[in-house]
Amino acid sequence: MIIDLRSDTVTLPSPAMREAMYRAEVGDDVYGEDPTVNRLQELAAERTGKEAALFVPTGTMGNIAAVLAHTGRGEAVMVGDQSHIYRYEVGGASTLGGSPMYVIPTDANGMLDSRKIETGISDGSDEHSAPTALLCIENSHNRCGGTVLNLEQLEALNSLAHSHSIKVHMDGARIFNAAAALGVPVSSLAQKVDSMMFCLSKGLSAPVGSMVVGSREFIYKAHRMRKVLGGGMRQAGIIAAAGIVALEQMVERLAEDHEHCKQLAHGLADYPQIEIDVDRVVTNIVNFAVLNTQQQRLTHEETLQFLAKAREHGVLMGTMGEGTIRAVTHYGLDARDMQTALAAIRRTLIDMQLLL
Ligand SMILES: Cc1ncc(COP(=O)(O)O)c(C=O)c1O
User: Fold this and answer.
1) For residue 79, what is the DSSP state?
2) Ligand 1 test: best mutation among 60, 177, 197, 205, most atoms within 8 Å of CB?
3) Looking at residue 140, what is its pLDDT?
4) CA 7 to CA 330: how far, in whole Å?
5) DSSP 147
6) CA–CA gap between residue 201 and residue 208 (Å, rounded)
7) Is-cis flag, bond preceding 140, omega within 30?
8) Where are the alpha helices (DSSP H) in 185-325?
9) Could you tell me how far CA 21 lies from the centroid of its own chain?
10) Distance from Cα 21 to the centre of ligand 1, integer Å
11) CB of 133 within 8 A of CB of 70?
């Protein structure tokens, strides 16, 4: 049996989702006539405490549509250097919207330095720099190992941005994981930002889809941008139906994934050749590195070898570069799978002569 820890995007739809998809009432959503999409959008707005919501096929499209809706051509968007928007979205906001990205260092917990934000903001009075229109943040933070920004941190970022008349967009691909880890309703996190994207297709296990939420005026603009990006779908209720089940049935269980991730992290910490900070594992992502006999991180090539060997032993994981390995827990995996994964990783370390 393969234990796939590469991402929570590998989750398969639950039986209830398949049933809901089969039975979904549908219509042409470009005419606004798909009742299931409309219901999902109302539910997403209600759960996040925002005025309106928009169903988009992917998180990437949701983030790009949001940035395009907030910024005009030549207006800058501030992003963290480790953010998904900056690193993994093909520079879409800049390429498609003509908005230059101003990049700020991200700390180990996914937080952005307020002094760096402040010194980087341009009000447009200097003709050399693009005026700043938007600050993007990420919660939970993927590349930082699923770390979360709490209410105080969000409030600090929000008030700083607003004091300079800058809007805040949150890439909340895994915001329900962040909310579960913090023990707060997702609406209290969403309240701290002007707009947010969250994914139905990750920990919430829907096969396809993400949501963008914000004010009615913002969603009106994001809707237009979705169309520009080719994201106007027709009988999308088929997939929206699974999204409704995701919001109604899959949120509560995320705490299980977090428990499994901690179990995995503690097990890994028992192996002397694994470099890991278990205290930073608060959601469903764990980052770690493998050390060689000189206590140095494996090179990229060696990391790929390690992952290939782990695959032979039945465990799939990914690399984030610089010797960092990422494992993600999710629906479909249980505590026994964590034990099996740990045993397979142990055998991999032995194969690579890193453990006796
Ligand atoms: C933090 C974050 N934002 C956005 C996305 C984009 O989502 P999608 O793969 O649906 O485009 C991802 C996907 O992995 C992500 O981890």
Assistant:
1) E
2) 60
3) 98
4) 8
5) B
6) 5
7) yes
8) 186-190, 216-228, 237-249, 254-269, 300-312
9) 24
10) 23
11) yes
173 close to ligand 1 (CB < 6 Angstrom): yes
Answer positive or negative: Cα dihedral of 186, 187, 193, 199: positive
Long-range Cβ contacts of 300-303 (<8 Å, 24+ apart): 302/352
Cα–Cα distance measured from residue 338 to residue 263, given in angstroms and rounded to the nearest whole number:
7
Output the DSSP codes for 280-295.
Answer: G--SSEEEEEEB-TTS
Distance 354 CA to ligand 1 centre (A): 34
Tokens of 280: 């930073």
In whole angstroms, how far apart are CA 107 and each of 65, 92, 141, 158, 276? 26, 24, 11, 17, 17
Nearest one of 205, 138, 143, 206 to 175, comparing CA atoms: 138
Give the pLDDT confidence score for residue 93 in this predicted structure: 87
Residue 138 in contact with ligand 1 by CB distance below 6 A: yes
Q: Which helix (H) or strand (E) holds 116?
A: helix 114-120
First to last CA, the chain: 25
Kindly state the DSSP code that residue 131 receives in the 8-state scheme. Answer: P
**Token pair for residue 11?**
């989750």
Partnered with residue 275 across adjacent β-strands are: 289
Rounded distance, CA 209 to CA 60, Å? 10
Nearest to 162 by CA among 122, 126, 135: 135
Nearest-5° Cα angle at 303, 299 to 308 = 150
Ligand 1 pocket residue status of 58, Cβ below 6 Å = yes
3-class DSSP assignment, residue 207: coil
Predicted pLDDT at 188 = 98
Q: What is the mean pLDDT of each run of 10 residues along the chain (356 residues)?
A: 97 98 98 98 98 98 98 98 98 95 97 97 95 98 98 98 98 98 98 98 98 98 98 98 98 98 98 97 98 95 97 98 96 98 97 89
Q: Which residues pair with 101 in a beta bridge?
A: 77
Helix, coil or strand: residue 17:
helix
pLDDT at position 355 = 84
Cα 110 to ligand 1 centroid, rounded to whole Å: 15
Show the tokens assigned to 250. 């899959």
